[in-house]
Amino acid sequence: MTFNGNWKIDRNDNYEKFMEKMGINMVKRKLAAHDNLKITIEQTGDKFLVKESSNFRTVDIDFTLGVTFEYSLADGTELTGAWTMEGDVLKGVFTRKDNGKQLITTRVLEGDELVQSYNYEGVDAKRIFKRG
């Protein structure tokens, strides 16, 4: 299973409620819902290079499966955690540095779409990407 490729945001499901639960203010939530996010994923064995490009920032995320690293969300929320593979699912378990609460993110290929799911304090959301 390869996640390699260029992915462009197509639609969101419950994303605003998720951002609200994360403590992101209304103005940033409205902007983020229309961020035109593009993700480029390059996987070589257990190593990943993910480039996230949106209207607000471009960031390169370099990680190895199972190795803890630090990451900042677009709103500045700092996290620490790691990605692992569970079958065909890329799963990230991250802890917020500010409050110690857990954010779980998964990426899975469903047909021609990359589905990125989030769970934070019982709120689930999805961002669905198309190749592009």
Q: What features would you describe in this structure?
A:
The chain has 132 residues and is mainly β. The protein has one domain (5-131): Lipocalin. Helices cover 11% and strands 58% of the residues. It is built from two helices and ten strands; from the N terminus they run E-H-H-E-E-E-E-E-E-E-E-E. A hairpin with a 5-residue loop joins strand 7 (89-96) and strand 8 (102-110). The model has no long low-confidence stretch (mean pLDDT 94).
Provide a concise account of the structure shown.
The chain is mainly beta and 132 residues long. It has two helices and ten strands, in the order βααβββββββββ.
In the CATH hierarchy, the architecture is: Beta Barrel
Which value, in Å, is the CA radius of gyration? 14 Å
What is the 3D shape?
globular
CATH topology: Lipocalin
Distance between the termini: 18 Å
| Order of the strands making up the biggest sheet | 4-3-2-1-10-9-8-7-6-5
Strand segment tally: 10
Descriptive labels:
ten-stranded antiparallel sheet; globular; Lipocalin; 132 residues; mainly beta
Describe the secondary structure blueprint for this structure.
Layout (H helix, E strand, L loop, with lengths): L4 E9 L1 H7 L4 H7 L5 E7 L2 E7 L4 E7 L4 E4 L5 E9 L2 E8 L5 E9 L2 E8 L2 E9 L1
Antiparallel strand pairs: 1-2, 1-10, 2-3, 3-4, 5-6, 6-7, 7-8, 8-9, 9-10
Family: Belongs to the calycin superfamily. Fatty-acid binding protein (FABP) family.
InterPro entries: Calycin (IPR012674), Fatty_acid-bd (IPR000463), ILBP (IPR031259), Lipocln_cytosolic_FA-bd_dom (IPR000566)
Protein name: Cellular retinoic acid-binding protein 1
